[in-house]
Design goal:
445 residues, alpha/beta, Rossmann fold, UDP-N-acetylmuramoyl-L-alanine:D-glutamate ligase, 6-stranded mixed sheet, 21 strands, 37% helix
């Protein structure tokens, strides 16, 4: 919602809005940055809904009895969902690039945005994560109004709205269980690739995305990956805890962000660069400087020989990739994970348990926080304790209070350990990661 609001405002429109986090005095830095751009904020009590509004744009997370929506109905104002409005803008551009997939979308979008920014394409960008260079311009950091016909957008499959997008170039990173069962996701992503007009950039390594090759005309496919079938293939791969190097068609690439999954993300961006005519050596220079995005294996700091990371991983595929990257040098891992909702936890319960059991070693620690609750209606018939029942990791526990987490980290951590805070939707997890780092610094002194 914030990304869309910033673009509409930058185009010269009056924009106002409300958010329950604003009412609860959370994420105040985000709201300050929105206000600095001339976006008017109101309490979510109906006071911001007035007859002069041309359109009311709503998140799918808003309940029907929300005071703002009740006032909208009273005034008979036109309402459209965020995803429908974004699709409308996107489809009206002549050069829309849509980034889709279960994992990696935000990083691919950020890499592609920086690559296009630095080579004169100047796209309008809406991303699902914060791009540091955009944040330094004074906004939230997840959007930028461009000066060309290009529009680069991270799309969303969680509500099925992905099928409303008709990109010129579509990027499909991968398909894994998240938000919906695999058969439903394949249907949604199938529509996305069918809607793509010119080129589908698609992973050749993901078995579910490979299934879609049969419905895409061969001349529209540009595949990427590590397998020999990939058209854009990573070779001579070298991984370290601080990044990686690899070659594509003889050109050397170097990334400052760790993990094989980030090489895959880079390959998708490289494929896009090739398609729009950017030379490989220029793409390499841009990606070498890429700083990552906030909350994607973001290093908070190192104290007393202990590294602390803040990470958005919340589904099994993301957690799997992040843990592999963090354990690249064999470090012991202290993983703090907050499930990101009751529905997703119920849907992914078996896969989450399997991921923890397969990726964590007996010496590692797993700390589960209570399931994140954003408000509204939710079936609360599952809890973090239910996840623990299937976890075989000896040092696994559910801590209800974040003060307890700080105490436990201080008690068990030692030089050489890696501490990572994982979870989605709750921005206060970043505060927890910073608090852990500060506590370790005090312990060091």
């Amino acid at each position: 919602m914030s990304g869309l609001a910033q673009i509409i405002r930058a185009q010269g429109n009056f924009v106002s809005g409300s958010d329950r986090n604003y009412d609860n005095q959370k994420d105040l830095e985000v709201f300050r940055r929105l206000q600095s751009q001339g976006i008017k904020l109101y309490p979510q009590n109906g006071s911001g809904i007035t007859p002069h509004l041309d359109q009311v744009i709503v998140s799918n997370a808003i309940e029907n009895d929300n005071p703002d929506l009740m006032k909208v109905r009273e005034l008979s104002l036109p309402v459209i969902s965020r995803s429908e409005f974004l699709a409308r803008i996107f489809n009206n551009t002549t050069k829309g690039i849509g980034v889709a997939g279960s994992s990696g979308k935000s990083t691919i979008t950020a890499m592609s945005a920086r690559m296009m920014d630095e080579t004169g394409f100047e796209p309008t960008v809406i991303n699902g994560a914060i791009i540091p260079e955009y944040k330094e311009l004074g906004g939230v950091g997840n959007a930028k109004l461009g000066n060309s016909d290009y529009m680069l957008v991270e799309t969303d499959e969680s509500d099925g709205s992905l099928i409303n997008f008709y990109p010129e170039i579509g990027i499909l990173a991968n398909i894994s269980k998240d938000h919906k069962p695999i058969p439903e996701l394949i249907q949604i992503f199938s529509r996305f690739v069918e809607n793509t007009k010119r080129t589908v950039i698609i992973s050749a390594d993901c078995p579910f995305s490979r299934e879609l090759f049969r419905i895409i005309p061969r001349e529209k496919v540009l595949s990427f990956g590590f397998s020999k079938e990939s058209q854009i293939k990573a070779e001579e791969v070298k991984l370290s805890r601080d990044g990686s190097t690899f070659k594509v068609q003889g050109t050397l690439f170097s990334l400052k962000i760790p993990g094989k999954h980030n090489i895959a993300n880079a390959l998708a961006a490289i494929a896009l660069g090739i398609k729009i005519g950017i030379p490989l050596n220029i793409i390499s220079q841009v990606l070498k400087k890429f700083r990552g995005v906030e909350r994607r294996l973001e290093l908070v700091g190192e104290a007393n020989g202990i590294r602390v990371y803040d990470d958005f991983s919340h589904n099994p595929a993301k957690i799997n990739a992040a843990v592999e990257a963090l354990k690249q040098d064999g470090s012991r891992l202290i993983l703090i994970y907050q499930p990101h909702g009751f529905g997703p936890t119920k849907l992914l319960r078996e896969e989450l348990v399997e991921t923890f059991n397969q990726k964590l070693e007996p010496a590692d620690f797993l700390i589960l926080l209570d399931i994140y609750y954003a408000g509204g209606t939710a079936d609360k018939s599952i809890c973090s304790e239910d996840l623990l029942k299937g976890v075989f990791v000896p040092r696994a526990e559910n801590l209800h209070d974040r003060a307890e987490v700080l105490e436990r980290i201080a008690e068990v951590s030692k030089p050489g350990d890696i501490v990572v805070v994982m979870g989605a939707r709750d921005n206060t997890l970043s505060d927890l990661a910073r608090s852990i780092f500060k506590a370790l610094k005090r312990k060091d002194t």
